[in-house]
Automatic annotation (TrEMBL):
This is Putative endonuclease-reverse transcriptase. One of its GO terms (molecular function) is endonuclease activity. Residues 498-770 form the Reverse transcriptase domain. InterPro entries: DNA/RNA_pol_sf (IPR043502), Endo/exonu/phosph_ase_sf (IPR036691), Rev_trsase/Diguanyl_cyclase (IPR043128), RT_dom (IPR000477). It holds the Pfam family RVT_1. Keywords: Endonuclease, Hydrolase, Nuclease, Nucleotidyltransferase, RNA-directed DNA polymerase, Transferase. CDD domains: RT_nLTR_like (cd01650).
Length: 1078
């Protein structure tokens, strides 16, 4: 289905171009704007569109002379494919197109926001979007500038092949209207396609004239509908100053296609039957095999893995994908399947015998089946609350939200297995440019590193392993090893010791499967795929034991310097964010100071590591000979095969780089770069230490207070990279000059090997967008957009489900606040940012179907949902106090104490809050400090509640000004259904869709139904309107109610009759207004 959107700048002047109408005939649906035709003239031009059903929206003409303004023409071809049905519909006085295709129902929303009446047009569009479900295609001339705004999370872009996370645009202007439109997109789960699709990768101009060029013709698609988008383009036509935009949708049956990101390999599925019987079956099987008598450790290990496969419930069917079809419902497990089979069995018996006895057996079995299903479903949705409660990081949130994405972009790749093999062979075997290192390998020994592997080490590694992880070639996931009997684990330990003592690993430990994961661009180009590597779980268990020993050795000997925080227990990205922010704020607290930062990006850093240089560096740092020998065995003959739809390719060897998927790789990389800080020199002195750079794995930022020093550091970095085989990616490596204001000097320029390095005004460092003044506006804008998208992703599967309790829905919101909004709040959470509170208002408005004008203070007071700031300041307080107790060598602790000494940044705010609330605290008394900071948080929460209450008590709120202070029977709880909560909420807060609003003084506020000439407010609607008196009698027992009686109704506890009355009365009111146009 091809859809065209085009601002034609007048239809009459297109009559001289026959090719224009030929062009339109290429599309099934067309939306043309600015026809400049008033309604009475439209019929004259229908003859030019013989192949279309037409819908005209007349242009407006305010003066008798001159042309009309605006005008829209919508067209639907009169010969569509048999499985596609389209029709014009009008919703909220907006003409749109309803499409039904391949069991999908969605809306195409043509948009023309007139420049002269933009605010009114946009308000109508906003109301329309709040009424529609999230399956929309919105396109047209929005007369707003968006720049490159709207970055979407990786989990959306990775699964939707059309998209990239960030948008490109040749129009760099962002105006107020653009910000309003972007906020509507976030609220309505709309993803902008301009500048992020295959057909428009650069964000081409859609308006080109002598006055300027811009991107104002936009196409947006609901996130849940992205899988239907085939392509989006900005076309090149010269009929007008605007360029037409085109979106292509496809509705082929997904069963006829292969998914690009299809499941990797057959894997053993851990089932309920395995929980009951696997351990005993494996123990008996192993005892019969006499594994220990073979004398060959590799053969013994193969015997054990084969026994695991044979004893698994689905082991005999391994490799047959048909046995592993996932259920439509995630709660539908093997027990549900079992009772369904029993129900069908009795149904077939009843059909054959047709007597009451077999009928009763069937009904009993079917009732049991339904009972089990309902129980599993309820248990599943109750458990979601706990799952969301555990979420603290955005990655965990997106991983959980992926469960609720019901669509995937489907396509058929034409890339052969051999093409993939050749591509990854070259990628994983780069040419080494560094000189070969020749050295006499020292014979270091270490008692802890070289000792015998124990059962407790294996169990410890198994305890850290996560379930539901993809296995390697042997198809055995962690769950089976976790449930092995102890005698089997002891045999595995014995086998591991044999490998460790001999210094030789089996071939299977060096093998991995690479899965080509599509990124973006042409699906038929190998360059648009990245590899994900999978290694046998038993090999990862062996590596996990080595990893724990390596960490213990590093920590005991203080090998890693404090500037490396990547993949390090007790360290995190926020440590470096906190350190960077504090360092900058301390330096900039002095006048005319600057901090120069070079954010370094290495090209394929993990893949380019010279293994010879790695082992040299490990030996140089004192790692034992025995440990290095086993590492060499793991890396000596690494072999890779590529998964493809045709199967597995032939293996090929790799001799460069660290192994993806190996548990040891991140730490080995950190050890490889461990000498970088010392090598580059310079840096800056602060709080008695010299800070030169901060490293998080391969994310490096070099810091200094002098532009000359920075260039010297860059030169040293370049020399380091040449010596150790690393490459700086200048396209992504940037410099930022942190300063309080003013322009940069023309001498502040830097280069690598004569190539200039770009100086930028914003940079995303470890997931947080920083600017020269450390302002967080851009970061918050992106995080708010992601948070709304995260909430929208769950809406149909969680928020609107009756069987999901209210508390679980709240927990989803809190998890989004923690993982998305609150990221980095350890550094900035002491301040309140009003833009972040918009997410709370958005959630409450959407959950209870409230109008956009609903005041935030009423929403906060009625729900009692705490502010985002109450969470972020807690995170900040807890983080700082935790580091004040940590050893003095930790960077965040050093910088935190310096901030306290200088009374700047967050500590200055602490002192202000303490003075405001008359709370004195001492930094040296940690227990007392915790109590005092808790008191400050309580006072802040109390202050917000008092403010909200004072606003709610304004006289303009006839009812709520008294309800907000009275005792109400709780209705926002797990025992109340969401629909009832919505109606009660609207009634209590005076947010029903009536003519009179509490803040309005308009003469049109009078009741649309009765002739009493009274304001149609909530009190009149519930207690007085004569037209509704019969319904009032039926549901509430009286013809009319006094104000006092209405207040009593709105305080509960008899909510049922009130909800029924308001629902029926609202529907009746809408029907009367629609029928008689009141």
């Amino acid at each position: 289905l091809r859809v065209l959107s085009y601002n034609i700048g007048g239809l009459v002047n297109k009559l001289m171009f026959p090719s224009f109408f030929v062009f339109l005939n290429n599309y099934e649906i067309v939306a043309l704007y600015e026809t400049f035709l008033v309604q009475n003239d439209c019929y004259k031009y229908e003859k030019y569109f013989p192949g279309f059903y037409l819908k005209w929206v007349g242009a407006s003409k305010l003066k008798s002379k001159g042309r009309a303004s605006g005008g829209v023409l919508l067209g639907i071809r009169n010969c569509l494919p048999i499985n596609i049905h389209c029709k014009f519909v009008k919703i909220n006085d907006w003409d749109i197109i309803e499409v039904e295709a391949a069991a999908d129902k969605f809306y195409i929303i043509p948009v023309y926001l007139n420049f002269s009446s933009w605010e009114n047009d946009f308000a109508k569009l906003n109301n329309l979007m709040s009424m529609l479900e999230n399956r929309c295609v919105l396109l047209g001339d929005i007369n707003a500038r968006l720049a490159e705004r709207q970055i979407i999370p990786d989990f959306i872009a990775e699964e939707e092949c059309l998209l990239s996370c960030s948008r490109q645009s040749k129009d760099s202007v962002l105006n107020k209207r653009g910000l309003d439109f972007l906020e509507m997109c976030d609220d309505s789960e709309l993803i902008i396609l301009n500048g992020r699709s295959q057909g428009d990768p650069y964000g081409e101009y859609t308006y080109i004239s002598g006055r300027g060029s811009s991107v104002i013709d936009i196409c947006c698609v609901s996130a849940s509908f992205l899988s239907r988008v085939k392509n989006f383009k900005v076309l090149s036509k010269t009929y007008t100053q605007h360029m037409p935009i085109e979106i292509a949708l496809e509705f082929a049956d997904f069963a006829n296609f292969n998914c690009i990101n299809a499941p990797l390999l057959s894997r053993l599925i851990w089932t309920r039957q395995d929980e009951l019987h696997f351990k005993s079956k494996l123990e008996n099987k192993i005892n019969q095999m006499n594994v220990e008598q073979t004398g060959n450790s590799e053969i013994e290990l193969n015997v054990i893995t084969n026994c695991i496969v044979e004893c698994a419930y689905f082991g005999k069917q391994l490799g047959n994908r048909k046995n592993f079809k996932p259920s439509k419902h995630q709660w539908f497990d093997t027990e549900c399947k079992k009772y369904r089979e029993i129900s069908f069995r009795f149904l077939n018996i009843f059909r054959k015998r047709n007597n009451n006895f077999t009928k009763n057996l069937y009904l009993e079995a079917n009732n049991k089946y339904k009972e089990i299903c309902f129980s599993k479903r309820d248990e599943y949705y109750r458990s979601l609350k706990e799952q969301f409660k555990k979420i603290k990081e955005s990655k965990d949130l997106w991983d959980l939200l992926k469960r609720f994405k019901t669509t995937n972009f489907i396509n058929e790749s034409k890339i052969s297995g051999e093409q993939f093999r050749n591509y990854f062979y070259l990628l994983l075997n780069p040419v080494l440019t560094a000189p070969e290192i020749l050295y006499a390998e020292p014979y270091w020994s270490d008692k802890e590193l070289d000792k015998v592997i124990t059962l407790s080490e294996l169990k410890n590694t198994l305890g850290k392993a996560h379930n539901n992880k993809a296995p390697g070639l042997d198809s055995i996931p962690y769950e089976f090893f976790k449930n092995c009997p102890e005698n089997v684990l002891l045999q595995i330990v014995s086998i591991f010791n044999s490998f460790y003592n001999s210094g030789r690993c089996p071939l299977s430990f060096t093998e991995s499967v690479i899965y080509p994961l599509y990124k973006k661009g042409d699906v038929h180009s190998v360059n648009n795929y990245r590899g994900i590597s999978f290694i046998n779980v038993v090999a990862k268990l062996f590596s996990g034991i080595l990893l724990t020993r390596l960490w213990n050795w590093i920590n005991f000997n203080n090998i890693l310097n404090e500037f490396q925080a990547g993949f390090r227990p007790g360290y995190s990205t926020v440590d470096h964010i906190f350190t960077l922010f504090n360092l900058i704020k301390i330096i900039l607290s002095k006048k005319r100071q600057k901090v120069y930062a070079f954010f370094v990006d290495f090209k394929a850093a993990f893949d380019c590591i010279d293994r010879r240089a790695l082992f040299f560096k490990l030996a140089n740092q004192g790692l034992s000979y025995k440990f290095i020998r086993i590492l060499k065995s793991l890396y000596s003959d690494t072999r890779v095969t590529i998964w493809h739809k045709e199967g597995l390719t032939d293996f090929f060897n790799t001799s460069v780089g660290l192994r993806q998927g190996c548990l040891l790789s991140p730490l080995l990389f950190a050890l490889y770069l461990n000498d970088l800080c010392e090598y580059i020199g310079e840096g800056m002195d602060i709080a008695g230490i010299n800070i030169r750079c901060l490293l998080y794995a391969d994310d490096v930022v070099m810091l200094t207070s002098s532009p000359v020093k920075l260039q010297r550091m860059i030169n040293r970095l370049d020399d380091y990279c040449r010596r150790w085989g690393l490459n700086i990616n200048l396209a992504k490596s940037k410099i930022m000059v942190f300063r309080n204001g003013g322009r940069m000097s023309r001498y502040e320029k830097w280069s690598v090997n004569g190539k200039p390095i770009e100086v930028v005004s914003e940079y995303k460092y470890l997931g947080l967008i920083v600017t020269p003044k450390l302002s967080l506006g851009r970061h918050f804008s992106e995080r708010i957009s992601h948070a709304k998208l995260g909430l929208n992703t769950t809406w149909h599967n969680i928020m609107l489900r009756k069987d999901v309790p209210y508390s679980a829905k709240l927990e989803v919101f809190h998890s989004v606040s923690r993982a998305v909004i609150g990221y980095g709040s350890q550094a900035w959470g002491f301040e309140r940012f009003e833009e972040l509170e918009r997410v709370r208002r958005f959630f409450i408005r959407k959950l209870f179907s409230l109008p956009r004008y609903a005041p935030g203070y009423i929403l906060a007071h009625e729900t009692g949902i705490p502010s985002v700031h109450s969470y972020t300041i807690k995170v900040h307080f807890d983080y700082v106090v935790r580091f004040l107790e940590m050893p003095d060598f930790r960077l965040p602790a050093i910088l935190a104490k310096e901030v306290i000494n200088k009374k700047v940044y967050w500590y200055q705010k602490w002192l202000e809050l303490g003075e405001k609330y008359d709370i004195q605290f001492s930094i040296t008394e940690i227990t007392d400090l915790r109590d005092k900071l808790f008191s400050i948080r309580q006072r802040l929460d109390k202050s917000e509640k008092e403010y909200n209450l004072s606003k709610c008590m304004q006289p303009k709120y006839l009812l709520y000004s008294q309800l907000c202070t009275s005792v109400c029977v709780p209705y926002l709880n797990d025992g109340m259904d969401l629909l009832s909560m919505k109606w009660i909420f609207k009634c209590r807060t005076e947010l029903l869709n009536l003519n009179s609003k509490p803040w309005s003084q308009d003469n049109t506020d009078i009741c649309s139904l009765c002739n009493s000439r009274e304001k149609e407010d909530t009190y009149h609607f519930i207690g007085k309107c004569k037209i509704l008196s019969e319904m009032r009698v039926k549901w509430l027992g009286k013809k009319s109610y006094t104000k006092k009686e209405v207040l009593s109704l709105l305080n509960g506890p008899n909510w049922g009759p009130l909800v029924m009355y308001v629902r029926v009365a609202s529907l009746y009111r809408a029907e009367l207004i629609s029928e008689f146009n009141w």
